[in-house]
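Figure S7 source data.
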Amino acid sequence: MRVFLAGATGAVGKQLAPLLVASGHEVHGMTRHESKRAMLEEMGAVPVVADALDPDQVARAVGLAKPDLIVHQLTALSGWGMRALKRGAALTNRLRTEGTDHLVLAGRAVGVHRFVAQSNYALYERSGGPVKTEEDPLDPAPPGKLRDGLAAMRHLEKAVLGSGRTEGVVLRYGGFYGPGTNMAPGGELFEMIRKRRFPLIGDGAGIWSFIHIRDAATATLAAIEHGNGGVYNIVDDDPAPVAEWLPYLTHLLSGKKPRRMPRFVVRLVAGEGGVVMMTDARGASNAKAKRELGWRPAYPSWRQGFSAVQEESTHQMTGPR
Ligand SMILES: NC(=O)c1ccc[n+]([C@@H]2O[C@H](COP(=O)([O-])OP(=O)(O)OC[C@H]3O[C@@H](n4cnc5c(N)ncnc54)[C@H](OP(=O)(O)O)[C@@H]3O)[C@@H](O)[C@H]2O)c1
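Tokens for the predicted NAP complex:
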């Protein structure tokens, strides 16, 4: 198949492009930067330079590539620090709304038969059972700073799933960790956790689902090749409360326990949106992805996954013995 991969140079894209090429697909990988052409060529992809927020550039790029299928992995989340995070969140919202619309329209114009896009399990309602399936309701009223981000994701899902004759596939990924993500040795989140700057808030009862970035890529390949239209949770087998995974990871990285902070203090500083992911979030089930995609994560639990990522980097630093 000829695949148009928007976000080919990002965390998922870098893992996915070589997998697609190895499986015999022709990949047209999009970036904004002329300087990343060589990187895309090295991955075996045809470089396409275009800005996802410019409808004419997107229409031209997709029109030239004439893909069978479009994969949307666009975000703008690589900055760190308060200002960069705010700017990145706003840009990501635009990529999930305007960017999605431009890609869907451009795809429709060339008759792509399938459109696969990145979403997130954080969309689920924060009440009822601890682990959500694709059938469960979404959060009807996300608090504070979560509101705009989740609204943008809902826009993306609606546009992709309702894109006429194009079959829409939405992948609600768990939290990424592993090479190229901020949850890897040297990555911003791992560093915060290592320095004990990522506290355990309240009872830490919020449940998180994770996925190793290479498992995210293998699931995406399976969805591209034989997924049905609709939504899939792409997460590992082990949804776990923050009170379980954070002490495990803090200990793995620094040998210490995470600091604790009362809920009301964090609410004052970061607002309710900053608190609920730590105290009220729900995890997600991967049963449908396993059943329909025939996919299995190589790291069924973040326990093995975090340790493997840590070991991989130690091995790279010290070299083979
Ligand atoms: N589920 C999750 O946990 C989740 C989801 C998403 C991201 N993240 C985290 O966020 C961090 C950053 O993610 P990332 O490494 O994927 O990088 P990123 O900076 O979010 O960029 C992702 C992709 O989007 C492309 N892009 C952004 N704006 C574009 C535009 N206007 N036009 C065309 N392409 C555009 C980038 O291409 P160019 O820059 O080459 O133009 C890149 O290929 C990582 O730590 C990742 O783990 C986590």
